[in-house]
Amino acid sequence: MLVKLLSGDSPRSPLLALILLAILIALAFAPFLFPGIRSVDTAARICIFIVLVASYDLLLGYTGIVSFAHTMFFGMGAYGVALASVHMGRGFDALAVGTLAGAALAAVFAFLIALFSLRVRAIFFAMITLAVASAVAVLVSQLSQITGGEDGLTFLIPRELTPAFRFGDELFGVRLNGKLLNYYLVFLASLALFLLLLRIVNSPFGRVLQAIRENDFRAESIGYRVVAYRTTATCISAAVAAFAGALYAVWIRYVGPDAVLSFDIMLDILLMVVIGGMGTMYGAVIGAVLLLIAQNYLQELMGLGAGAFEGVPILPELLSADRWLLWLGILFVLSVYFFPTGIVGRLRQGR
Amino acid sequence: MTHPILETRDLTVRFGGHVAVDAVSCTFRTGELCAIVGPNGAGKTTYFNLISGQIPASAGRVVLNGQDITRAGVSRRCDLGIGRAFQLTNLFPNLTVLENVRLVIQSKRRMGFALFSTAASHVELTNRAEEILDSVRMMPLSGYKVSELSHGNQRKLEVALLIALDPLVYMFDEPTAGMSVDEAPVVLDLIARLKAQTDRTILLVEHKMDVIRSLADRIVVLHNGALAADGAPAEVMASDVVQEAYMGKELDIA
Ligand SMILES: Nc1ncnc2c1ncn2[C@@H]1O[C@H](COP(=O)(O)OP(=O)(O)O)[C@@H](O)[C@H]1O
Ligand SMILES: [Mg+2]
């Protein structure tokens, strides 16, 4: 049953299985295990980024396509929900329409980009995605009548998903309110999307993608239309990224260029997929958890460290919270150096 | 023999000013095994590339079963029945031996776009792949990654993929190149077994004269990209053009 849910793709390393199980339990019971607005917020972001990074892994790790437009697809889902909620009024119908419209738009964009660039050469795709993503980000900032420009849009989500909605008193000291429901919406949708992606990469289609990554020339000569497969993978990846974006918008109840379209998110996705391990799906889980926790708590930890070493030359300077990006960079270089196949790859070798 | 299956008409390709294949017209018939010979650089591999679609022709036509496929893409030609094994081993190196064969069978059965079932659940594909591996005596290697195989076994797998594809026209480009003396006969035996299935057409680029003598129904000689001779083995081997262009060179005439 469990193996079926995982589409037969077991973690293939006891330690990895243990870590994944721990993460699953932590996320499933996050509001109860780690009460507090900030930690639940981190947990929700982790869920969403797992999906986002896994959908990117479908492209990069399984198909061997480099794209810089993944944040754009994420943003389309987010803006879809925001715009639908603004124009249709708060409600679940607005969320559904916005999500589906965003995913459809993302798939159409992906299709057009793929059509124009993948026919030429796969590397061309990377450049086109970079250009299109930049253009869309500028456009969104400029069209302030529609998108709210740089300020973005704040919108109302259904009352049932907000803290104002109560459906009971307390359970294990946790308030039973709409925010809790919102978290579980995010968690369950993310879990479903992740399992869907896991199924796709383990399907006959997924095997073709891997064959294309390994040797596109040979894949074509045994009868696979490489362009059609790459295009389909791009569209699926974009649509799932848009779903993740929609969940994100519902969670933070706001969209803006910095929050959902910035190139920083693209860099985060790349870091997460590489550190976790490309072409493994589980790498997305490990990468997202590690990086988001580091981003959220490293700054504080370093602030503490800087305080502790006050008076010592240089050290407080190096540990100052502003330097956290530097440390993240060092961490990244080290991890790529020591685990070229990512953490998941390393754990599987070590079995 | 029976009816024509594959035909090239004045098939030509130029690379810059260099004519690599020069107006080659040839008709191949169902069930025949045709050896294609010629010194290195004669254009044999390029001729294959034109037939299987890896390179677009500068002029001329390729006709398969009466259908003009000159403009068709590689995967389309594969669907129509052209199967190609490569001179330089060309496999999926980080996938297992079994997965390599499975991919071919999956393609043949047009199942590549099955998105929501697991590959493992299609037991019939796996069974068929194992049958093929068994027939080429590679079953013990099925779980290995291709990159872990010896050169000889990679060449053998190259042939196995073509057998799995089971095309109308088999194209082997120096299938035994770089193989040891004990490995080569295994591959040649596989080709001989294919030849015994009388409805399959085989084009074989091969240097070893004894192999050609024992397997070929017909020999086509390419020289500087052009067709230099075409006919029954005994006749072609005796002809002046072959003595001069090919046999005269100190190629490995075993
Ligand atoms: N893609 C290419 N571009 C330029 N020249 C090529 C190309 N492919 C083959 N050639 C040239 O065409 C000629 C025939 O090569 P090839 O078909 O590989 O010969 P063979 O297989 O008979 O040894 C050679 O002179 C080779 O250098
Ligand atoms: Mg050659």
Automatic annotation (TrEMBL), chain A:
| Claim: Zinc-finger is one of the keywords in the record | no
Span-the-membrane segments of this chain are 15-34, 46-74, 94-116, 123-143, 181-201, 222-249, 269-294, 325-345
Q: Name one GO molecular function term.
A: branched-chain amino acid transmembrane transporter activity
What GO terms fall under cellular component here? Answer: plasma membrane
Report if keyword Transmembrane helix is assigned.
yes
Membrane topology, record value = Multi-pass membrane protein
Q: Which UniProt keywords apply?
A: Cell membrane, Membrane, Transmembrane, Transmembrane helix
Protein's cellular compartments: Cell membrane
Q: Which InterPro entries match?
A: ABC_transp_permease, LivM-like
Q: Which domain of life is it from?
A: Bacteria
Where does it primarily localize? membrane
Q: Cite the PANTHER family for this sequence.
A: ABC TRANSPORTER ATP-BINDING PROTEIN (PTHR30482:SF17), HIGH-AFFINITY BRANCHED-CHAIN AMINO ACID TRANSPORT SYSTEM PERMEASE (PTHR30482)
Q: What is this protein called?
A: Branched-chain amino acid ABC transporter permease
* Species for this entry: Rhodosalinus halophilus
Source lineage: Bacteria, Pseudomonadati, Pseudomonadota, Alphaproteobacteria, Rhodobacterales
UniProtKB/TrEMBL annotation, chain B:
**Entries under InterPro entries matching the protein:** AAA+_ATPase, ABC_AA/LPS_Transport, ABC_transporter-like_ATP-bd, ABC_transporter-like_CS, P-loop_NTPase
The cross-references to Pfam families, in alphabetical order and at most eight, read: ABC_tran
What CDD domains would the database entry show?
ABC_Mj1267_LivG_branched
Output a single Gene Ontology CC term carried by this record.
Answer: plasma membrane
GO MF term set: ATP binding; ATP hydrolysis activity
Query: For the ABC transporter domain, which residue ranges apply?
Result: 6-249
SUPFAM superfamilies given for it? Answer: P-loop containing nucleoside triphosphate hydrolases
Superkingdom, according to UniProt?
A: Bacteria
Q: Which UniProt keywords apply?
A: ATP-binding, Nucleotide-binding, Transport
Q: Which SMART domains match?
A: AAA
Q: What is this protein called?
A: ABC transporter ATP-binding protein
Q: What taxonomic classification does the UniProt entry list for its organism?
A: Bacteria, Pseudomonadati, Pseudomonadota, Alphaproteobacteria, Rhodobacterales
